[in-house]
Amino acid sequence: MAARTTPARRPAATRKAPAAAKLVEPPTPAPAPRETVLKIEGLVKRFGDTIAVAGIDLAIEAGSFYGIVGPNGAGKTTTLSMVTGLLRPDAGRVVVHGIDVWADPVVAKRNMGVLPDRLRLFDRLTGAQLLYYSGALRGLDDATVAARSADLASAFGFEDALNRLVTDYSAGMSKKIALAAAMIHSPRLLVLDEPFESVDPVSAANVTQILHRYVESGGTVVVSSHSMDLIQRICDHVAVVVHGAILDSGTMTEVRRGKTLEERFVELAGGRTSAEGMEWLSSFSD
């Protein structure tokens, strides 16, 4: 019988390796659009022949720390007064969390906390009474008002002043109690007009930290100021307002375009004057 022969094995080097499986990465989901918590459309205000606000349009998303900058007389305070229902516009519309401020002001104002430029406080009340009034006005019960007042006083550093009359407060302390009163009902939107004016640097740093924590939790801050450095440091979005109109708006990076906010503002607004012809300032009196 003939011997059986075993077929020769194919050399290992010639074996065909299995094709490597291709790794297909799942597409990165687009970030979910954030809710527009404040929408301003075609806002106009005239005082006689003067146009204070000339058709402002702005959309601010929830979770933004939005700065509005401009020189004195630019229309910042007039705009914010219309936004918060303190001044009726001649034209345009303001919507806060889906509610028209002028069509349904009571509901719209529940969603806002407001610090106006010119403080109007009941200064014959103590600080504790002012906070109680602000909380009760927003429908909070006594226990909630007491707990939140204690938290705010501790955060802002005026625990020792709660039982003093507001009329005896310094300008900076008055600003802080007014801001606490604006926040006590935990609004979705804070509108602050020059909140750091007259506030010392340490208190300003504490207030900034509190506002950033509020934004991180989903709140929205709109703050106006003529201090470019302040807005650049604390805000993530900004609008430049001059003569009642927005010259540029967007994220801080988009608006700055590689410059400081002050440099960009001067570039947009112009108006820088020369000191030529004032050589007499170098001739000092004896």
The CATH superfamily title of the largest domain: P-loop containing nucleotide triphosphate hydrolases
Order of H and E elements: EEEHEEHEHHHEHEHEEHH
**Mean of the pLDDT scores?**
86
> How many domain regions?
2
Strand order of the largest sheet: 6-7-8-3-9-10
Tell me roughly what share of residues is in helical segments: 25-40%
Which structural class best describes the helix and strand composition? alpha/beta
The total beta strand count reads 10
Unreliable segments of 5+ consecutive residues: none
What is the 3D shape? globular
Strand content: 15-25%
Quaternary status of these chains?
single chain
The top-level CATH class of the largest domain is: Alpha Beta
Number of helices: 9
How does this model look, in words?
By secondary structure, the chain is of the alpha/beta class. It has 2 domains: 34-111 and 189-268, Rossmann fold; 116-186, no CATH class. 31% of the residues lie in helices and 23% in strands. The chain has helices at residues 76-83, 105-110, 127-137, 142-156, 171-183, 201-216, 228-234, 252-256, 261-269; strands at 36-47, 50-61, 65-69, 91-96, 99-100, 112-115, 189-193, 220-225, 237-242, 245-251. The strands form 2 sheets. A 6-stranded mixed beta sheet has the order 6-7-8-3-9-10, sandwiched between helices. A 4-stranded antiparallel beta sheet has the order 2-1-4-5. Helix 6 (201-216) links the parallel strand 7 and strand 8. The mean pLDDT is 86.
Output the keywords.
Rossmann fold; 10 strands; globular; 4-stranded antiparallel β-sheet; 286 residues; 9 helices
